Amino acid sequence: MKEGKMKAVFCPKYGPAEVLELREIDIPTPKENELLINIKASAVTRSDIFIRGSDIPLLFRIPMRIYLGILKPRRPIIGLVFSGIVKQIGKNITRFAPGDEVYGMTGFNLGAYAEYTCIKETDSTAGCISRKPKNISFEEATMAVYGGALVLQYMGKGNIQKGQRIFIYGASGTSGTIAVQYGKHLGAEVTAVCSGRHADFLRSLGADRVIDYTTTDTLDGDPRYDFVLDAVGKAKTSKLKEACKKALTANGKYVSIDDGALQLDSQRVDGLTTLIEAGAIKPVLDKIFPLEEIVAAHKYVEEGHKRGGVAIRIDHESGGAR
Fold this sequence. Notes:
Elements (H helix, E strand, L loop, with lengths): L4 E6 L10 E6 L7 E10 L2 H7 L5 H11 L12 E9 L11 E5 L10 E5 L7 E4 L6 H18 L9 E5 L4 H12 L3 E6 L4 H6 L4 E4 L12 E6 L8 H7 L2 E9 L9 H12 L7 E6 L3 H9 L6 E5 L9
Parallel strand pairs: 8-9, 8-11, 9-10, 11-12, 13-14
Antiparallel strand pairs: 1-2, 3-4, 3-6, 3-14, 4-5, 5-7
Helix pairs in contact: 3-4
């Protein structure tokens, strides 16, 4: 690779995974209030799939196009989450120094499918950044920051107490696997919904009961839950999901990860780091793809059978991901 150049994945138009293409472009220069991050890993998130535009539900299509670009992405380098090393800082940066291992999200700036990106250290719709947990890899960190931020934001709405009963619909995905562990950390009794092939795995994460949505569409015994988390979003419906909405206690709460935008909050991510370093949460990594296989990675995620998350390894001459 040429001096001063980096690899990046471009999305020149909306469409299926095949629209993504690898290019070589200039490494960006950080402004006075920005950090230059040498990205070691990114991930293929549910948001990335929507942004690429292959199968956006009609409910989201118009508002997403207004924010992201009507006919094509305004910011063609997509990718929402990153983990890596601070390479350079602007003169106004106070929280970080070169060499710090960090992770975060890029917000509406996107740009995480690249070897480098610039990001502000202050929270905004353009991203948030925190120090990476010391006890996980760069790839695992991308699972943690996306799924963990979702879980802490939406499960926080439930004010979950020790001994309460909670229900996680879509428990085998990036956010669902973290939700199961976080629920147990809070002392709740956790019922997890997934396909049967993931049942034993979710029990190993702490789930007290596992329901196979491929064979079950009702809740036997008239159970009641204090909190229900829909970890797959409103676009996916089923008789079982409708049943769990009706299975709440008098003061129970049903929350979907589609209930409002994901808040880019570095303090919340700092809290996630504390949980991970204490061993309360372990991000689940299904598969790692190199940057050059980004098309295959997107196709794999779209199949809908992953367990945990899918990371993108972004190597650079200065050193690859752990």
